[in-house]
Amino acid sequence: MIKAILFDADGVALKARSRFFSERFAEKQGIPITDVIPFFKNEMRQAFTGGVDIKEALKSYLSKWKWQGSVDDFLAHWFGEESPRDEEVLQYISTLRAAGIKCYLATDREPYWGKYLVETVGLKDSFDGFMFSYDIGHEKHHPEYFQEVLKRLGLTPADVMYWDDDQKNVDVAKGVSLDARFYTNLDNLKKETADLPA
Q1: How far is CA 87 from CA 5, 14, 32, 43, in A?
Q2: The pLDDT of residue 38 is above 80
Q3: What is residue 160's three-state secondary structure?
Q4: The pTM is what?
């Protein structure tokens, strides 16, 4: 019996963007994408598991990127562009919670971005809790992420459903026996969870 549902952020609880921020930013700043990619492939990935403070890491990049503001200004710009709420999905999640199903945001994020989602984007009241990779210590493409989430929830794999629009993450979750589903749209989500509320 499903007692909890994990929801991915980008492309599920948050609206998907058609292009990566790094691409849009490089184009806007008039700089080569090759100047931007190293940060997003290295320091940002390390920050997702708590290994790097991105405010410190960004200091050596921003002048090269022709950014005129502060590190905090950059983070506000970056996070703001990447965090549009999907109000219809969030509303449906509220109906699941009202029916007694615990709902959690499960996403790869570093601490500042996690705080931004909870406080600035206002997801604090939309979920029963947050499973950020920086706190878990693993990204979602590692089975250890889901094993730790289960441990923290005190639930078995059979108790937990997981929705993500990244098939790789879905496959990893299935590998630890979660009821993992590939997210395509809200109608699909509603159809496959219609019989869950008691």
Answers
A1: 18, 8, 35, 31
A2: yes
A3: strand
A4: 0.95
